[in-house]
Design brief:
Layout: H1 2-28, E1 58-61, E2 76-78, H2 81-89
Antiparallel strand pairs: 1-2
């Protein structure tokens, strides 16, 4: 009986140690996928003011904040109803 009790105690200690080791290992693993880098740093934003030739209302915004854009890319579409009406009057 004593040897069976000793074996059970050793098995319980091994299981508890393995569980603790696994829990520690899981806590040290990164939660991000391998293809995403993480770290501390500072990113400088580049702001550029845009203007239109004619006054009017914006009908549709074609890009979202944070999107990369290229020179000449259309960012927004204007409502041309008022412009066309004033052109027709002229």
């Amino acid at each position: 009986m004593k040897s069976l009790r000793g074996v059970l105690i050793v098995l319980v200690v091994i299981v508890v140690a393995a569980g603790g080791g696994y829990t520690y290992w899981q806590s040290q693993q990164s939660e991000l996928p391998g293809y995403i880098a993480s770290g501390n740093g500072r990113v400088e934003a580049e702001e550029i003011r845009v203007a239109t030739k004619y006054a009017g209302r914006v009908d549709a915004v074609l890009v979202d904040e944070g999107d990369s854009v290229t020179a000449g890319q259309v960012l927004a579409r204007m409502d041309t109803a008022e412009l066309m009406a004033s052109k027709a009057k002229a």
